[in-house]
Design goal:
The complex is a heterodimer of chains A (83) and B (255).
Chain A lengths: L8 H21 L3 H10 L6 H8 L7 H15 L5
Chain B lengths: L17 H13 L3 H16 L6 E9 L2 E7 L2 H13 L3 H8 L3 E3 L9 H9 L4 E7 L6 E8 L7 H55 L3 H15 L3 H13 L11
Antiparallel strand pairs in B: 1-2, 1-5, 3-4, 4-5
Helix pairs in contact in B: 1-6, 2-6, 3-5, 6-7, 6-8, 7-8
The chains are: A mainly alpha (83), B alpha+beta (255).
Chain lengths: 83, 255
């Protein structure tokens, strides 16, 4: 999954930055990783727990569509409320 | 299990520790959730230690997201005292929690630490405090707080009793925590299965209508969700309802 979708070096740089931002927001939420993954899976996410964990620790890249779902999962979970 | 009748809280002369252990296990079985367990624990501790002319109030504070919270108490007075301390953000029980060791304040009038809290506690009629942390091995942090209206309200024997009591309670509590974590994970997974079914279905519908690929369908739904500030699952449900009129889509998930 890593790097096969990324275009040139510019896009990789952009993806790095986005990933850093997502990882930072994840740390701030103090959500358990499994809770976020489960929610993300419920939104239709495709990445397994290990890739997901690796992404949030800035060790792996995920396709843009998955990154969007991770962001959505974080947003919806942090709004709290019912699930 | 000895099979004998439950004999709660007799005086400790010459008694083996079985009674307390037995009833604690009973607590685990009888408690529908942790809060109930902790409340029963607090009541147990105060019943066990209270004597004539020395009523012990007992409460449990749990550290959640690094913030102390009074979750259970033997009575309203103990709950108020716990909340008072948490409100001040400092006190013997919070110090015991941080250090992970038992802390005894034999006489509040002679205590110079935790100034503002101690003064207020004295005004509430408290003279001595015993705080015993529960070792939960990183799952959570909790402390059992005991308040007496007498100075030197806790004997050395009392302290030993509460400590062994707290150690047993911690073991039971770890088990409850483990179980409730698993239950929560199971509930989360069930919710995820329901949600994913609806979303996958809506993604397929959008793909068919727009003749687009899956990623594009996802981003159409996600954009609708974030611009209108509606949950993705609800956007998906709306899509399905608009096509087929179906309102309830459920997935069977083997529990």
């Amino acid at each position: 999954m890593n790097a096969d979708w990324t275009g040139g070096p510019d896009q990789l740089l952009e993806a790095d930055e986005q990933r850093r931002d997502v990882a930072r927001r994840f740390r701030n939420t103090q959500l358990p990783m499994m809770k976020l993954w489960t929610y993300y899976y419920g939104l239709g996410g495709d990445a397994d727990e290990m890739s997901f964990d690796a992404y949030l620790n800035e060790a792996l890249h995920l396709p843009a569509s998955q990154v969007g779902l991770i962001a959505t999962a974080m947003r919806e979970l942090c709004e709290g409320g019912d699930r | 299990m000895t099979g004998s009748q439950e004999q709660p809280f007799q005086e400790h002369e010459g008694l083996p520790p079985e009674p307390a252990e037995l009833s604690l296990q009973q607590l685990v079985l009888d408690s529908p959730d942790i809060k109930a367990f902790l409340t029963e624990l607090a009541i147990l501790a105060s019943t066990r230690l209270s004597g004539p002319g020395n009523t012990i109030h007992s409460g449990v504070t749990v550290l959640r997201h690094k913030r102390p919270q009074a979750v259970a108490a033997s009575d309203a007075a103990a709950k108020a005292l716990d909340e008072l301390q948490n409100g001040f953000g400092q006190g013997p029980c919070l110090t015991a929690l941080q250090q992970g060791t038992t802390l005894l304040v034999p006489d509040l009038a002679a205590e110079s630490r935790w100034e503002p809290y101690v003064q207020t506690a004295v005004q509430h009629g408290v003279s001595s405090i015993l705080a015993v942390p529960l070792d939960l091995e990183g799952d959570a942090e909790a402390v059992l707080n005991l308040y007496s209206g007498r100075s030197n309200g806790f004997s050395g024997e009392d302290i030993a009793t509460v400590e062994s009591f707290a150690a047993q309670a911690a073991i039971s509590l770890r088990l409850i925590l483990r179980i409730s974590q698993l239950r929560e994970a199971r509930n989360d997974l069930t919710a995820a299965m329901q949600s994913r079914t609806v979303i996958d279905m809506a993604v397929g519908a959008v793909m068919a209508q727009n003749r687009c690929d899956r990623d594009t369908a996802f981003s159409i739904l996600t954009r609708a969700s974030s611009t209108r500030n509606i949950k993705l699952r609800e956007v998906a449900a709306t899509v399905i309802t608009s096509i087929s009129g179906e309102r309830r889509i459920t997935a069977y998930f083997d529990e």
